[in-house]
């Protein structure tokens, strides 16, 4: 580990006192690597049966595991099938502590690149909706890719400043995650470059941004709704300081106790405004457990309110309807057929509530199903990843060891033996084992590759 900023170390010594030496020593230990099973695609139990990696459970999330650096799970075809997301183990805690249930309307306000949004989306089990927002357009693109890779159909991926979202969606959400932009002090071991950009002014700068974010988030939370605030930094002003601000400015917001795990520390009232409630916050310090630094606070907006109404108005025209009916005939599709929208020639299945979003800058609304071309429908890559193998009438299922998988992911045309695909011509869902990777089209015994250029491995 390179030299850590002096002002940071002085403050940490002041905060941690007799634990400071152990804290400092933790920077000599290697970082931890984590993988979170995407339960939308496979149960933890089933994944453990097929996993080629050496996994150890992460205590605070049932689908989280440590893996060995030598395992390289990003290179395995199961990664391209979206069976897991690679995530630093402490970073799994915020989504694990926000009790999302199927049918909820959920917002991840600062969502890119999607580490937590993909878990929140999985826990919705295709019911309700996930609004995943990020202020940065380049980061929002990575967010879109990860949500599509994980096969989450009921999402609205936006690229907005929080205040604009708040204007469009007042008291709309049951659950909100604010994984706030922060000074990143907890990531110095994982990403030494973050330490280089840090200076003493960063915590106050981010504390101001965080207050703006939570102001918008609270206005979008339904009475009775839950908000999880998290950062990956140690500085008091961004953690207990921000929560003290909320408690003082928003009397409707209360702190809740959350599950705690071995090694988690309580929030320190003295690092905020002295309110004893602040002990309900949670801190993760790297010298107490196997993960990087994090802070979390679960809050509730007092009161109660009913369900958000589902609304939907547009319908495809007759010609589009005919092509879609032909393509999807006999298929057990994983989305409601009554929420199809055609925009230009692109076909989407929209999330349940749709009319609140006018004027919001977005990258994707719902599941992109595919394109209407002259006299035919071409299915999309996100559709492939949102399907289960058995839901598509014809498939080519390859074992992870089959060299054609690597060639498919590079975009090459593949040789196929007679009988390998369920049907001997037309669209095929290409799978590793039984997990979809993308589409191909079988023409005269050759599989034309439909894996999109932007997804290919070089
Ligand atoms: C800690 S990162 C989020 C990580 C993400 N939740 C995950 O688990 O992958 C914070 C995010 O906040 C975004 N951000 C920065 N300023 C913001 C603002 N004023 N409003 C909303 N998001 C902001 C950044 O672009 C960044 O992607």
Protein topology:
Blueprint: H1 6-16, H2 20-26, E1 33-37, H3 44-50, E2 56-57, E3 64-67, H4 77-80, E4 84-86, H5 93-97, E5 105-108, H6 117-123, E6 129-133, H7 137-149, E7 155-158, H8 162-168, E8 173-179, H9 192-197, H10 202-220, E9 221-231, H11 240-249, E10 253-256, E11 265-266, E12 282-284, E13 294-301, H12 318-328, E14 340-343, E15 346-349, E16 362-365, E17 367-373, E18 376-379, H13 381-386, E19 395-398, H14 403-410, E20 414-415, E21 426-432, E22 435-443, E23 446-449
Helix pairs in contact: 8-10, 10-11
The structure holds S-adenosylmethionine (SAM).
S-adenosylmethionine (SAM) is lined by residues 91, 109-116, 134-136, 139, 162, 179, 181, 209, 213.
């Amino acid at each position: 580990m390179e030299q850590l900023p002096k002002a940071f170390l002085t403050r940490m010594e002041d905060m941690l006192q007799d634990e400071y030496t152990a804290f400092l020593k933790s920077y000599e230990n290697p970082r931890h690597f984590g993988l979170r099973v995407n339960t939308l695609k496979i149960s933890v139990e089933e994944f453990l049966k097929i996993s080629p990696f050496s996994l150890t459970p992460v205590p605070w999330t049932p689908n989280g595991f440590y893996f060995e650096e030598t395992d390289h799970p990003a290179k395995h075809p199961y990664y391209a099938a979206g069976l897991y997301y690679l995530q630093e183990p402490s970073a799994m805690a915020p989504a694990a502590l926000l009790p999302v249930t199927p049918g909820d309307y959920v917002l991840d306000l600062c969502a890119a690149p999607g580490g937590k949004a993909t878990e929140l989306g999985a826990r919705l089990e295709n019911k309700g909706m996930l609004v995943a927002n990020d202020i940065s357009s380049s980061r929002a693109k990575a967010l879109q890719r990860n949500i599509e890779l994980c096969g989450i159909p009921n999402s609205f991926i936006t690229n907005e400043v929080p205040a604009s979202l708040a204007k469009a969606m007042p008291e709309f959400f049951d659950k909100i995650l604010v994984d706030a932009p922060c000074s990143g002090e907890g990531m110095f071991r994982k990403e030494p470059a973050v330490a280089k950009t840090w200076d003493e002014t960063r915590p106050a700068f981010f504390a101001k941004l965080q207050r703006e974010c939570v102001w918008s988030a609270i206005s979008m939370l339904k009475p009775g709704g839950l908000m999880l605030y998290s950062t990956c930094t140690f500085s008091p002003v961004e953690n207990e300081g921000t929560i003290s601000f909320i408690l003082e400015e928003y009397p409707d917001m209360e702190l809740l106790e959350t599950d705690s795990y071995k090694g988690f520390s309580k929030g320190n009232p003295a690092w905020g405004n002295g309110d004893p409630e602040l002990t309900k916050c949670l801190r993760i310090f790297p010298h107490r457990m196997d993960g990087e630094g994090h802070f979390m606070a679960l809050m509730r907006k007092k009161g109660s309110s009913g369900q958000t109404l589902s609304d939907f108005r547009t319908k495809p025209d007759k010609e589009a309807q005919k092509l879609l009916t032909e393509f999807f005939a006999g298929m057990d599709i994983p989305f409601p057929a009554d929420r199809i929208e055609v925009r230009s020639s692109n076909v989407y299945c929209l999330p349940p509530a749709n009319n609140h979003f006018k004027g919001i800058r977005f990258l994707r609304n719902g599941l992109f199903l595919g394109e209407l071309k002259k006299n035919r429908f071409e299915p999309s890559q996100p559709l492939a990843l949102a399907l289960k193998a058995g839901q598509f009438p014809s498939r080519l299922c390859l074992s992870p060891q089959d060299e054609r998988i690597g060639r498919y992911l590079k975009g090459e045309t593949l040789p196929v033996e007679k009988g390998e695909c369920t049907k001997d011509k037309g669209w095929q869902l290409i799978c590793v084992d039984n997990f979809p990777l993308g589409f191909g089209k079988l023409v005269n015994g050759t599989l034309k590759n439909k894996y999109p250029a932007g997804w290919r491995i070089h």
